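Good morning N.,

You mentioned wanting to compare the apo and holo forms, so I went ahead and generated the holo version with NDP. This is what I fed in:
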Amino acid sequence: FKGFIDRAPRETDMELKVGSIGGGLKAPPGSGAFLVKNLCLSCDPYMRGRMRDSRASYIPPFVPGQPIEGSGVSKVIDSDDPDFKPGDLVSGLTGWEEYSLVRKTDQLPNQLRKIEQHDVPLSYHLGLLGMPGFTAYVGLHEICSLKQGDTVLVSAASGAVGQLVGQLAKLHGCYVVGSAGSRQKVDLLKSQLGFDDAFVYKEEPDLDAALKRYFPQGIDIYFDNVGGDMLDAALLNMCVGGRIAVCGMVSQHSQTDPQGIHNLFNLISKRIRMQGFLQSDYLHLFPLFFNQVLKYYKQGKITYVEDVAQGLEHAPAAFVGLFSGRNVGKQVIHVANP
Ligand code: NDP
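and this is what came out, ligand included:
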């Protein structure tokens, strides 16, 4: 990571450096750390916030000159931590590098997990069975009080979070419509992910009219991944007693002049519950989520689409692509095989 920015990220904000980790692939004795070989890394929109020199955020900024930090799946090579042994597969916070020294104390509670399931693709621990999947689960169940028959709108619907939001809502007998940035994504939502309907928001001159078309009776749940104009239009179309999970604002990340929201009064007139949330506040529910979603996956009730960039050298482009919608499905970077 080269340095702080106040605009949309570019590939040149990152550079590939060749360095030595020294120590002959050993965890320093007495360090309590373990050395891992990184196998796959996660690209997540929240990481853009860490490129800003702001300590006001819920997560500290990246350190200029140091590797980008993020979730990854890794294999333990050497360990000075009795809980982790060479050969263990783990998911947790690591670096965008081939090898990293990892310490339990640098992780959020419950963030570092040993991978026990060997019949699931490893990268799924960064998506379906990881933080994005958990975000979908928490947002729907804890924030939106999902119930059978709800009408559900989800934005960035084919992404890491959105695709699971839609499928979980379908499994609970809801009517689900997704918005996405391209026809390819809309086809995916309808033909592979079981959404009742989907539309390309970029092709809709009037989002309010579009939502009225898809939700003639109104929206019970809006799972908001994007903020901005879509949120404003959704407010106009919510049912009385509707719930909005304010999950993300990816449309606003790099706006110097964020779009105004005009329809907030609907919160009152329709008694809408609109709640922001961070998945990290609900980590006690992680085991419940994990077992539930793993079961659905093994029963063939859930599909998960990934966009895999091959090699660390393609990581900057993969990350930047999140903000133009280049990714189709959960963006991961494959670094090495176990
Ligand atoms: P995605 O896999 O959905 O990738 C990002 C997608 O955002 C892009 O593919 C693109 O899809 C869409 N996008 C990009 N720019 C814009 C724009 N200007 N307007 C509208 N859509 C845009 O990411 P995730 O599923 O990982 O994350 C989705 C959201 O959830 C993000 O806002 C993220 O910050 C948030 N989040 C929140 C968490 C929490 O705890 N609250 C935890 C995890 C994620 P398209 O082509 O469809 O436009």
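Residues 44-46, 131-132, 135, 156, 158-162, 180-182, 185, 225-226, 247-251, 277-279, 322-323, 325, 327, 330-331 surround NDP (CB under 6 Å).

Happy to go through it together on a call whenever suits you.

Best,
F.
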